[in-house]
Write the structure tokens for this entry.
Amino acid sequence: MQFYLFGKSYMITVLLSLVVASNVFSQSIETKYFKDVTTTHLPIDAEAHALDVVLADVNGDGHLDAILALEKLPNRLYLNDGTGKFSWKKGVFSEESHDTEHVRIGDFDKDGNLDVIFVAEDDRNHEFYLGKGNGTFRNVSERLPAKSEGNGLDIGDVNGDGLLDVIVGNTGAIPQNFLWINNPENPGYFIDYTNKGLPALRWETQSVKLADLNGDGVLDLITGNEVPPNRLLFNDGKGHFTEQPEKLELPVPLHTREVLVFDANGDKHPDILFLNLTSNGGAFEKDPTARLLINDGKGNFRDETTKRIPKQEYSTYAGVIFDFNHDKHPDIILSALKIPPFQAMQVQALQNDGKGNFKTVTSEVIPESTVGRSWGIAVGDVNGDGKQDLFIGQWGTQARLLLGK
């Protein structure tokens, strides 16, 4: 009898331990906002350096596929089966390895199919592919006007002709950014408009963003640079950009890696968020706190970081705006690395109070399984449930997929 009671007590203890362990495990991959389904939904390749990712339906089946820009490996297409499970379709892009940094997707030749452009840094090998609408692409990289150490990339109609144009942010010995205008007489070919459209500057750019920043209905340009200062340029509507340094308050030197534009405080005017490093894997040099600049409605941007953004010690290579708590106010998702020593960290979440003031809520929002050297992040409903999901690129750690709840 004594043994039986001891055995029963022991069994209860074991069962409770298993329940606790199960809860701990479930918490590691799931919160009330997201579930990490990486192991069942993504190709497993922990060695790949996925520096950027875009989500788009490239084969016409109504499901968002993923295109990954890879450093030192051929770029990839992951096809979505409609439930958010991705399979690697090999041989779609060039099988050569390049130092690819960024990718954008859009219909450049106006044939109704999505095309893809990549920019590379060290080997200066940018790529351009025309989509056929069935998940295959034709390599027309020879159409790109120039090579460079490309780091930033964005697309948009800068001259009002209805065609997508290209901005490339450059670093290197001659870090002049590029402006390539889509040829209206031959869409899908480009005219190098750099000398006419952009000032001759030593840019040292890591991120470029096209957005209407002064409310005149045309796309302006904001650049995040690894060497200060970041730059704001207004567009005259014809693709001629003029720098407006007096309109961009920059109280501290920054090493910026990504620029995000969104209405942080709900006043219907676009604000600017600079995502920053202390250094690119070196010593602790600059303050890496994300900087939030508020628009006064006239295209003047004032730095209100101190009262709106929590101070951070980690560096951020990428991020997205994402209303993860569905309160109709834009929140922030940030990649995070501890520099030095370039140590993997958990992806971070900042919640908006509706007035543009943010607090860190990582522990309740982001699964612990997201620890990695996270890089480019894309948002989209990959499983068709009406909720937005997160596809997180990683440098030398497994890319991750978080389904929204």
Observations:
- The first strand starts at residue 34 and ends at 36.
